[in-house]
Amino acid sequence: MCGVFGIVGHPQSKRFLPTVLASLQHRGHDAAGVAGFVTENTSCLETTKDIGKVETVINQESLGKFAGSTFIAHTRYSTRNKSSSVREIHPHWAQSMRGKLAIVSNGDLNNVDALIKHITESDVKVYTRNDAEMMAALINIQIRKSGKKVFQAIQETMRQIKGGYAALMMMEDDGRIFAFRDPWGIRPLHLGEFSINGKRCVAFASETCAFDIIQRFNNARYPDHDVSFTHREIQPGEIVAADADSNIESSLFCSPALDKIGCVFESIYFSRPDSKQRDETFQVLRERMGMELFRESPVDADMVTSVPKGGIPSAVGFAKASSIPYSIAILEEPITGGLRSFITNPQERKSLAIMKYNILNDVVEGKRLIVVDDSIVRGTTSKLLVKLLFDAGAKEIHMRIPCPPYNNACHYGIETRDPQTLISHNRTVDEICDVLGATSLAYLSIPGLYKAIRQSNALFCDECLSNNTPFVPELDCNCIC
After folding, report:
1. What does residue 341 show for φ and ψ, rounded to 5 degrees?
2. Is there a catalytic annotation at residue 44?
3. Mean pLDDT for the chain?
4. Catalytic residue among 2, 209, 403, 410
5. Which of 49, 78, 221, 225 could make an SS bond with 89 (beta carbons 3.0 to 4.6 A apart)?
6. 178 vs 139: CA distance, rounded Å
7. Pick the CATH number of 3-260 from 3.30.360.10, 3.60.20.10, 3.30.70.270, 3.40.190.10
């Protein structure tokens, strides 16, 4: 679940780019990278990228070599490929007869072995198994060998790749940014259009929180100007190109359902609470999940508390619905920098969980607690917190989770490919409760989840919860298998 961002046409884009990219840091903190032009024209495309968080990799010094105002950028969360490999960092390159092209992407392709075989047989060399490099190579082949125009090259590539993805691409000798999203809409991608006294620019992002920062920048930078913006989702299967004059071209590759929303885990965990889904913030959606959770699994207790930061909205909703007071009892240690233990590697996960949280002993002592977290995936953090809360004097600990049991592997951009690592896999709720050491445990049901977010489950990929594949079989015939 990496973060992708692109901007074209804004004269001050270099100034706010580090801040905007940092707003997507929660989607991946293994590495960060940017591609842009180092000449006033579009003849020379380069990157700056490294292992580490945005604040140490992308800053005004590292962006100093770029002369233009068009960029694509990435925050990396590694799934099947090594987090410590410099070669895996986005943007990824390919060389075509039209010069270099660079791609950043979010998601996972499922037919990488077949793609590598096809690419190798086309006399093109790839250096990693990274999805973005696969896409770059395939588009390169279509342009260089088949003479396809860019839209056609992307369309042909989308016929060959299978999985969940949202990608941004830029090329030498072409001032446009190209955006494309998988036909099933599994990974999110949004388009924002900004206007300053009628002068427009275009941005692309995994989440709408990135657009809010640009709009705040515009309001502060141009206080006496007419400043506005609009945004929409890139549709499943849509290919979009935008240039510095805000000319937007769109083509629909192939989609069985344009109303697809994407991965349901975006609603539960991934996206920031101030980002939006169908014009509602995730804060509002998650509060309703907490309310629905109380209706399904009420419990008598003295206090509702939350696991920061993900559990806060649903805990607020649970407290509102139950009329049980909400209070902060678990603090997140600032030195951890907001790192999410879910997206760390197994070696770091336990140590981060130990360092990340501090318990307010005098708040919990003698209390019957309802503890709300956004989800339980592997159980490392939940088990530790239950112990810490009991050690601090809690009388009872009732875990309430607004996400149904995460039972199954994800193959489209989350590092949960081995179901044996999932605490819910092949365990009953009572067995999970025993493992955690809690007084009681209850999850929101799948029907309750969709009731809370007020959408049909048919619009989402929820294979990790339901074990129902999102793929439409008739599209598979165009893939390399």
Report:
1. -65, -25
2. no
3. 91
4. 2
5. 49
6. 12
7. 3.60.20.10
